Amino acid sequence: MLGTVSVAAVAVLACSPIANASFVRALAARSLDGTATARLHLVKPEGSELIEEGPVSGALSGSASGDFYTGAQFTGTVTIQTHAGSIRGRGRATPHGSGRYQSFSGSLTLTGGTGRYKRAHGQ
What we know:
- By secondary structure, this protein is mainly β.
- The chain contains no helices and 10 strands.
- The strands form 2 sheets. Strands 1, 4, 5, 6, 7, 8, 9 and 10 form an 8-stranded antiparallel sheet that branches. A two-stranded antiparallel ribbon has the order 2-3.
- 21% of the residues are buried.
């Protein structure tokens, strides 16, 4: 399965007052805007569940693994592992075409991560 994920997050602005000061310090969270392409291959089929893994390149580089459930819509979870940490998400997609190789389009919701991405969230 070849998947292209648009990775985007809006910077979150956190404000904290500084003791005995008449100003507020703002800290902006990092955001990542770009495309990451995962070239996944089937590791283990179990009925309508597909367990896949493979390399990721683009805005994120590393490896990905996922559990996908097939049907009229694909649903599943994916983890992208990079040198700086991992990102987890869940998604839903509609397949296009027929046969062994299909493309799909849908959405991915980031649900968390580790390391640099420990507070990852967004769509």
